[in-house]
From TrEMBL:
Keywords: Repeat, TPR repeat
Listed name of the protein: Tetratricopeptide repeat protein
Domain of life according to the entry: Bacteria
Alphabetical list of PROSITE patterns matching this protein: TPR, TPR_REGION
SMART domains: TPR
Length: 252
């Protein structure tokens, strides 16, 4: 069953941008809680500079997890400004991610550029910079960066998914489906990937395939609902909307 080719390009771009805002968790190399760190600081104990930097990184990760992105930026800036030896590519990458979530795309790209100057083999920075390009409408630049990320790590799941979404936005449905097929083979994020593959079939006009993937996505979400929340939140809300768009004309 083929659908009529009526694509709202601006709506696709908006959905493409919003669906890509799946943040990679900032890394933390130790497990002390922010409250424990605060207690150590308040005790007056003099800490080695390296440990203080690690505490700042952990606190930044704590705030990022809770959506306190400006506070995370402030803490990571302290890390970056602490000393040349204390900076790492991941500090710039993680601060860039916080800027991205604040909508400060130019600042984010500048941080990803700096991360890649320090480590040209950092696949995460290429993926994250590509996400910024998508939000700026620079889809060709985005595809190049996703390719770089995948050249460095062919199993980079987020780059596979994000590049697939970008291919779809450009009408490159076969390429998008190939990406989603490879991503599904990793056995992770199945609900999200089936949703994206279903959407690709939907826009390509293959409604039967789309319905099958949407239902698979909802089944995975239902199995994981205790961990991921309601089917009406996140990707589940998109899937339900897309599924209704197919079924409604058939039942009218």
């Amino acid at each position: 069953m083929k659908a009529p080719d009526k694509l709202n390009r601006q709506a696709q771009k908006n959905q493409c941008s919003s669906l890509m805002r799946m943040p990679l968790p900032p890394t933390a190399s130790h497990r002390r809680s922010p409250s424990m760190n605060q207690a150590v600081q308040e005790s007056g104990e003099k800490l080695p500079k390296e440990f203080t930097v690690q505490m700042l990184r952990q606190q930044a990760a704590h705030h990022a997890k809770r959506g306190n992105y400006p506070q995370a930026i402030s803490l990571l800036t302290q890390v970056i400004n602490s000393s040349l030896s204390g900076r790492t590519p991941m500090d710039y990458n993680n601060r860039g991610l916080m800027y991205f979530h604040c909508g400060q795309l130019e600042e984010a790209i500048a941080d990803y550029n700096r991360a890649l100057e320090l480590n040209p083999n950092l696949a995460a920075a290429y993926n994250n910079r590509a996400n910024c390009y998508v939000n700026q409408g620079e889809l060709v630049y985005a595809l190049v960066d996703y390719d770089r990320a995948l050249d460095l790590n062919p199993f980079h799941l987020r780059a596979l998914i994000n590049q697939g979404v970008t291919f779809r936005h450009l009408g490159m449905y076969r390429e998008a489906l190939d990406n989603f097929d490879i991503a599904l083979a990793q056995g992770k994020l199945e609900a999200y990937i089936y949703a994206q593959r279903g959407r690709t079939h939907h826009l390509a006009g293959d409604w039967n395939w789309a319905i099958a993937d949407y239902l698979r996505s909802l089944r995975y979400l239902n199995q994981e609902k205790n961990a991921l929340g309601s089917l009406n939140s996140g990707i589940g809300k998109f899937v339900n909307t897309w599924l209704k768009a197919i079924i409604a004309p058939l039942t009218a």
